[in-house]
Amino acid sequence: MFSRLNSVTRHLASSHRAMSSASTKRPLLLYTAGTPNGRKVSIMLEELKATYGIDYDVHSIDISTNEQKEPWFIKLNPNGRIPVLVDRQRADFSVFETAAILLYLEQHYDTAQKFGFDPAAQPNDYSEMLQWMFFTHGGIGPMQGQANHFIRFAPEDIPYAKKRYLDETKRLYNVLNIRLTDRDWLAGPERGVYSIADMNAFPWVNGYSFCGIESLDEWPNVKAWIARNLERPGVRAGIAVP
Fold it and tell me: What residue stretches are annotated with the GST C-terminal domain (predicted)?
């Protein structure tokens, strides 16, 4: 009975949020939760808001109750994961996977390319940006995510799994540390330019303590890069969403 009541309550709350969001007519709607993947997109949206005045609505998803597995959400993302972006200005076109969302926003809303590079005019810089985005998407995110799971949430203690994923996370931090030698940002000429490559990696690395890493002192370039990210108002606003 209580399970059914909770389901009805969540449905009514979701309907109310959807009606409220629809009435605002903001161009973008973000379905998200307070996770590293969710924060990547909210950081980009806050940067776009500060730069171009583009506003957006937020629908907070309760992943603790598997709201992202409900049929209405599966229609938006068959993989049942957050975040999902809905573009109301483009016939409610929906985008899932964080790297894909960042690239979509950069393509359609970053008209002055403040957070990316022109693939025709700056092909090498654009390629570097993609390389470091995919490095995070295929490396840091999955490995640190598994470290988080086995250290924080696994129903049984599996020392091998905890060590394997924590060691790999640390190895990937070392790769970042090498890249950030004499650089401020991951992609771009000379010392680099702040871009969606940084937005894509920052939320995971900023959550280092959650997987049991006590300090970033072992990776001083990464530590300085984290501090530079946190100096940006858009980053600070983005990590506070939802």
Answer: 122-242
